Amino acid sequence: MRKKFLIANWKMNPETDKEASRLAALWDFPGVVLAAPFVFLPIFSKRLRRAALAAQDVYWEKEGAYTGAVSARMLKALGVEYVIIGHSERRNFFKETDVIINKKIKAALGAGLKAILCIGEPGPIRRKGEPAVKKFIAHQLREDLKSINARELEQKLMVAYEPVWAIGTGRAASPKQIIAAIDFIKKHLLITLNLKRSVVLYGGSVSKKNVLDFLSSEEIDGLLVGGVSLNPSFIKSIRNYK
Ligand code: PGA
Fold first, then answer.
1. pLDDT > 60? residue 242
2. 162 Cα to the center of ligand 1, angstroms
3. 156/206 Cα distance (integer angstroms)
4. By Cβ atoms counted within 10 A, which residue in 31, 108, 215, 228 is the most buried?
């Protein structure tokens, strides 16, 4: 099997560094990108041997009076390699727009980080059918990646197709829906943005039940795992598979 990426997105979990360290030890294998809350990043940057480290967010300014914010340069200096940008939870709860997401991607790439851009349609758009989904995704890609050099994106961008209706609902998209979306995203990146290579993952209710199907699909370059990334028995099952 060719190498697949696994992004473990812990979101705002777990509560203590003790629990976090236990989970991180389980996730520490090649191909893994561990997206931990900011508070755990300094601990893990010293401790992880095989997994790479991601932040779940970044602010676009370089430095200054932005209380509570964390810059791309700070992350880079810590040894963080990736940052998730545009997750639907940030778009919804924190009202992040495509303009903000575009600024964050530029700041991340400028500081030498790799960006994991999350895109995907909400339920009402999916119910309108495939053409509406494609239109929605194309719009996000165009706006989020506006005015960024294609060669830089080839090196430093991963896209995660994450339909909003599938995130945290226990209702994953079907392989057919996923493959159609990934194929569309890759074509869009190639034709509209001139990216000769791209990495496109799937995320949304990945579970012990469906993970092997997804991983064995040639079209899916990897998975972004939320809820079950905190579940030791899930992590162990994936570990053995790889
Ligand atoms: P989920 O989250 O796996 O819990 O659906 C996915 C995500 O973080 O995007």
1. no
2. 8
3. 24
4. 108
